[in-house]
Amino acid sequence: MSALLFWSALWLVGVGLFLYLMMRLARRLALRFSQGVEANIRAAESIVNDERVPDAWIAPYCQRIETLRRAVGSEAEIERAGQRGHKDCLRQLDQLVRFFEKTNLVDSAESRHVLLKGLQRQRERWVTGGWQFVIERDHDH
């Protein structure tokens, strides 16, 4: 009888531990999701309202270019770093557009249209302006 009680208690502890860990995981995932949504909203505001590339997107490339310039890197190295940053920013902007195309976070179809048009307009400017326009224009903030 005591063996049955022991295994039953062990099973209950195991189930309890599993449920506890699942609740922690669910909370962590919900927090990460909400932080991602908030970051996307902030990025869209920066791009559309302020006509700026989000700082988090360009900071690594600005630092790399600045390091190359201080270390007297070649123009080719600086160009490559800038092109890489430009390509990455365009990729992130495309992901942001897809996010807002699929999400229901905007209050109306008209708001969604205005937001997506603003993001597309900025994308065209970024493509036309090249990496210097995207990376270096906002570097002095």
Quick tags:
mainly alpha, elongated
Write a structural description.
This protein is an all-alpha fold and 141 residues long. It contains four helices and no strands. Helix 2 packs antiparallel against helix 3 and helix 3 runs antiparallel to helix 4 (109-136). The mean pLDDT is 90.
Q: What is the terminal separation in angstroms?
A: 73 Å
Q: What gross morphology would you assign?
A: elongated
Low-confidence stretches: none
Outline the biggest β-sheet. none
Rg, Cα atoms, Å: 24 Å
Continuous helix count = 4
**Average pLDDT for all residues:** 90
Helix content: over 70%
Given the helix and strand composition, which structural class is it? mainly alpha
- Estimate the strand proportion: under 5%
**SSE string, helices as H and strands as E:** HHHH
